[in-house]
Amino acid sequence: MLTIQDVSKTYADGTEALTGIRLAIPPGEILALVGGSGCGKTTLLRLVAGLDTATAGTIRLDGAAITAPHPGVGLVFQEPRLLPWLTIAENVGFGLAHLPRAVRRERVAHVLARVGLSAHGTRWPRDLSGGQQQRVAIARAFVADPVVLLLDEPFSALDAVTREDLHRHLLALWAETRPTIVLVTHDVAEAVALADRAVVMRPHPGRIHDTVVVPRPRSGDSDVAFAATRSLRALLDASLGRITERAAVPA
Amino acid sequence: MSAGAAARILGFEADGKTREAGARARSRPHAGSRRADGRHAVRFVLGVLIPLGLVLGWELATRAGLTQGRLLPPPSRVLGTLLALAQSGDLRLHVQATLLRVALGFVAGAGLGILAGAVTGTVPLMRHLVDPGLQALRAVPSLAWVPLFILWLGILETPKVALIAVGVFFPVYIGVSGAIASVDRKLVEVGRIFRLSRWALARRILLPAVLPGTIVALRTGLGLGFLFVVAAELMGASEGLGYLLVEGQQFGKPDQILAAILAFATLGKLADALLVFLTRPLLRWQDVARDVL
C-alpha cells in the first residue's frame, strides 16, 4: 500500500506546488493523476520517487517512509533518458548491476521481448525511434521488478498510434507482476484507457480536485469508457476554472 | 516462450515494423565496407590536392628559373636534406629528444589537468577555492614563465618539460571541468533512481558522459604540447627539432629549417592520429553530425 499523508511542497522561492495531498493507493492499482500544467502532478511524482522531499506530510510504502529513492519504486521519465554510451540491452540492465551476469541477461531478454525489441539489444539508443526508446525506458523500469512504478507523462511526445501501441506494452508488462502504477498524464483518453482510478488535480496551489473510478473490464469505445471520459473531461474543465457546455451536452 | 512468440502473442511485432524501418534506415550500413573504403580514398585525395599542387608549383617554378631557391629552397632540396638527416641518424636523435619532451610534458600536464578538472568539477568547495586562481594564472602568457623556470629549474630538460606541461595543463583543465559542468542533470537523476552510490555514479554516468569532452581537450592539449616544445627548444637546446630550427637560422640553411618544420608537422599529425585511434573505441556510441556531413 502506497500512502500519501497530507503532503505539501513549497519550493525555496516560495512557490506552493502542492498542498494537503492525501491518497491511498492499494497494491496493483493503476492510478492516473490528471490535470492541467502547473498543478503539481510531476512534483508529486518526484516526491514519491524520493528525488525531492516534501515540505510537510509523509509518503509511505508498506509503512516505511520514503525520503530518498527506494529500491521498490521505479520511475519512467517524460523523455526516455537512455544512457547514449550503453547498448539497448545494457540500458535495460542498468539497474541490475548487482545480479550475476546470466540472471541479468535472462531478465533483460525477457522484458525486451515483452516490449517487442528483442532484435535491438545490441544497438545504440541513437539507432531507435522515439517510441522505441520510450519502450526501452519502460523495460528498464520493469526489469527491476518494482512494487510501485511511476510514469511521468511517458507517452506525451509520441504520435497517437505509437501511444496506443505503448499502452498495450505497458499493460502487458503490468499484467505479469501487477505493480502499483501511478501515471501522470494530461490526456483524458490515456487515463481512461489505463487507469482504475483517475485523480483530477487543480493548480495554484496543486491539490486534489476530485476522483473518477473507471470500472473494468472495458475497451476504448465501451459505454463505461465513454461515461468515464465525459465525467473526467468535465472535472478537468472545472478544475481549471473553465465552464464549458461539454458537460451539459446530452450523449 | 521465445522472444518472437511473446511478441506475436502480444501483437506488436507486425505493426511495429513499418515504424522501425525508419530508424533502421538511419543507422549506418554494416555491409558495404568496400564503399566506405572508396569514400575514404576519395576524401584522402581531396585532402592532399591543394598542398600537393602548391608543392608541385613551387618545384616547377624553381626549376624554370622563376626563383633562385636560395632562401626558398624547392621541395626536392628540402626532402633531400630531410633524407640526409635521416640517413646520418641525426634526425632520429632530434625526433627522439623532441618526442620525449612532448610525451613527458603531455603526461604531466594532462594528468594534472584531468585531476584538477575532476576535483573542481565535482567538489563545489574546491571549485570556489581553486578555480579563480587557476583562471588568473591562465591569463599569463605561458612563455612568460620561461625566465622563471630557467632560474628555478636550470637550463636542462626540467624547465622544458615544465613549460610544455603548463601549456598542456590549461586546455585540459578547462575542457574537463567544463565537460563535468555540462553533464546532463537528467542522466544523473537516472543514476539516483537506481540508487547508485557516489562512486558508482561517477564511474557509470559521469565518466562516460565527460569522455567526449575530455578527449577533445586532450587533443587540444597535445597540439599545444607541440607548440610549446618548439618554444622550449628555441630557448636553448643541443638536440631536438627545435634545435635544428635554430641551427638552420644561424648557419643560413633554410632547407634545414623547412625539413624540421616538415618533421614537426608529420609528428604532430601522427601523434594526434594515434590519440584519435586509441580513443575511438570509447566513443563509438556518439550520435554526431560528422558521419553524415
Tell me which CATH architecture of the largest domain in chain A applies here. 3-Layer(aba) Sandwich
Shape of chain A from CA axes?
globular
> What fraction of the residues of chain B are assigned to beta strands by DSSP?
under 5%
The number of E-state strands of chain A comes to 10
The number of domains of chain B is 1
Within CATH, the superfamily of chain B carries the name MetI-like
Gross CATH architecture of chain B: Orthogonal Bundle
Percent of residues in β-strands of chain A: 15-25%
Helix content of chain A: 25-40%
What spatial form of chain B do the alpha-carbon principal axes imply? flat
Fold-level CATH name of chain B? MetI-like fold
Low-confidence stretches of chain A: 245-251
Largest sheet of chain B: none
Please identify the top-level CATH class of chain B. Mainly Alpha
The helix content of chain B, as a percent range, equals: over 70%
Order of helices and strands of chain B: HHHHHHHHHHHH
Mean pLDDT, all residues of chain A: 85
The fourth-level CATH homologous superfamily of the largest domain in chain A is P-loop containing nucleotide triphosphate hydrolases
Structure commentary:
The complex is a heterodimer of chains A (251) and B (293). With 251 residues, chain A is an alpha/beta fold. Chain A folds into 2 domains: 1-72 and 148-251, 3-Layer(aba) Sandwich (Rossmann fold); 84-145, no CATH class. In chain A, 33% of the residues lie in helices and 24% in strands. In chain A, the strands form 2 sheets. In chain A, strands 6-7-8-3-9-10 form a 6-stranded mixed beta sheet, with helices on both faces. In chain A, strand 4 and strand 5 form a beta hairpin. Residues 245-251 of chain A have low confidence and may be disordered. Chain B has 293 residues and is mainly α. Chain B has one domain: MetI-like (MetI-like fold), CATH 1.10.3720. Chain B contains 12 helices and no strands. Chain B starts with a helix and ends in a 14-residue tail after the last helix. Mean pLDDT of chain B is 82; it is low at 1-31. At the A-B interface, helix 3 and helix 5 of A face helix 1, helix 2, helix 9 and helix 10 of B.
